[in-house]
Design goal:
21% strand; 5 strands; 44% helix; alpha+beta
Length: 144
Amino acid sequence: MKEVKTAKRTARSLAAILGIVLMILAAGCASTTGASPASGNPSPEQAAFIAAAGKCSETSMTATGIAGTFTYSVSPDCTFTKTLVRLNKSETQGMKTMLEGKNMTCVYTPGNFDSRWVTSIVGGMEYCNGDLKDALANLIIFTT
């Protein structure tokens, strides 16, 4: 009997986590603000960053959107770093613990910067490494 209650509690917890993850991904993908890291359409600031990144010019930017606040930076050796600084206040503490402060690094060649790294939460991450990529990949795997 105790095992059944534990299994039910675990199932409810997983369902709650999956629901939260789906809401974050849906909110990020549905965003229509130009400055959002999930909008798909670059804001003027993002477009300037993408242009500089394409030339491997050292640059950085912070963007706040519906999902939260991200920082982006590029170094002259064509290394891009994306950090999820903080999720929006409405997110659970568990989700914040899982994602906040994590980053991923993507290496590319001049002229081959993937703009999805800036305009999407998960776009192009298959070419990157880091704890943010791993955490997002795990969330995607468990929600599909």
